[in-house]
Design brief:
It is a single chain. The chain is mainly alpha-helical. The protein has a single domain (2-295), classed as Farnesyl Diphosphate Synthase (Orthogonal Bundle), CATH 1.10.600. The longest helix is centred in the C-terminal third of the chain and has 23 residues, at 248-270. The radius of gyration is 19 Å and the shape is globular. The chain has 13 helices and no strands. 61% of the residues lie in helices and 0% in strands. Helix 2 packs across helix 4 (98-111), helix 3 (70-88) packs across helix 4 (98-111) and helix 5 (115-130) crosses helix 6 (137-147). It has helices at 10-14, 46-64, 70-88, 98-111, 115-130, 137-147, 149-159, 164-184, 186-189, 209-213, 219-239, 248-270, 284-295. One of its GO terms (molecular function) is squalene synthase [NAD(P)H] activity. One of its GO terms (biological process) is terpenoid biosynthetic process. It comes from Polaromonas naphthalenivorans (strain CJ2). This is Squalene/phytoene synthase.
Length: 297
């Protein structure tokens, strides 16, 4: 699920792999836009970030893993939402996800987490169950508003950064990361029936659904992808000043988050914007480039 791929350990963010049990405080990958308890994260925040991560990861699995029918997934997500609300209200949730809410409850109370942001994430997971096409960029960004932006806002809340300009910059970074993941994974998502390229941009580029479903790499599809890559780059750069506002090691983590996203865009451009046929990945050299660029931000 792509909204489970949206602010996680920097390299694994763009190269997903298996995720650990929530008690692990090392880098995790499934929920890709989440810098979950990485080495740069302040130790006192690691349990809180891991608890939020595991809440999102479990909801992602409910919505996307296995072979359950859509209605069964929606029913389970509704039950999961009810447990979230019970936990937030200080009531006992069901025993079904005791491990998740047993960790999340103390974090909600200790940090006064905005529960509406956690609920927004669930809304995006619910949408993923039933929606596989996006009519416009505005519709896609509304999805990012619920699937990715809450992650950044929750992390800023933990760091005590709450001013409006910083929240807007965080939204830009997280939405950009979500979009970058979409454009990176076109060749993975489309065969699964998910087309995130907005439909109202197809015709102006001479592209139709059949070309996308057939993963046809021609000049029209390449131009369509390039346009959206450029938009994601501009959005990331618009939010990049946030790295100077997050204190301590968190600010360095964020620098690597931004540079990881931008480096993936570099890789997409280097292969001629053809992600229908080949998914770009980060390697050891890219890590070095990201680190160098982060130092000079």
């Amino acid at each position: 699920m792509r909204n489970a791929k949206s602010c996680q350990a920097t390299i694994q963010r763009m190269n997903p792999g298996p995720s650990p049990h929530p008690s692990s405080l090392q880098g995790v990958s499934h929920y890709e836009n989440f810098p979950v308890a990485s080495l740069l994260c302040p130790p006192h925040l690691r349990p809180a970030i891991a608890a939020i991560y595991w809440f999102a990861r479990t909801a992602d699995d409910i919505a996307d893993e296995g072979d359950a029918l859509p209605q069964a997934r929606l029913d389970d997500l509704a039950a999961y939402r009810a447990d979230l609300m019970a936990t937030a209200a200080g009531r006992a949730p069901s025993p079904r996800w005791a491990d998740v809410f047993g960790r999340l409850g103390p974090v909600i109370r200790q940090f006064a987490l905005p529960v509406n942001l956690l609920a927004d994430l669930l809304s995006a997971f619910e949408q993923d169950v039933v929606k596989q096409r996006y009519a416009s960029q505005a519709e896609l960004l509304d999805y990012c508003r619920r699937s990715a932006n809450p992650v950044g806002r929750l992390l800023l809340h933990l760091y005590g950064v709450k001013d409006a300009p910083s929240l807007i910059e965080s939204d830009c970074i997280c939405s950009a990361l979500q979009l970058i993941n979409f454009w990176q994974d076109l060749g993975v998502d489309i065969p699964r029936g998910r087309i995130y390229l907005p439909a109202d941009a197809w015709a102006p580029h001479g592209v139709d659904e059949a070309q996308l479903l057939g993963l046809q790499s021609n000049q029209n599809t390449i131009n369509l992808i390039a346009t959206h890559v450029s938009q994601a780059s501009a959005m990331m750069l618009k939010g990049s000043q946030l790295v100077k506002k997050v204190p301590g090691r968190g600010g360095w983590e964020l620098r690597l988050v931004v540079q990881g996203g931008l480096r993936i865009l570099d890789k997409i451009a280097a292969q001629g914007f053809d992600t229908l046929q080949r998914r770009p990945k980060l390697g050891a050299w890219d890590v070095a480039v990201m680190g160098w660029r982060a130092l000079w931000m």
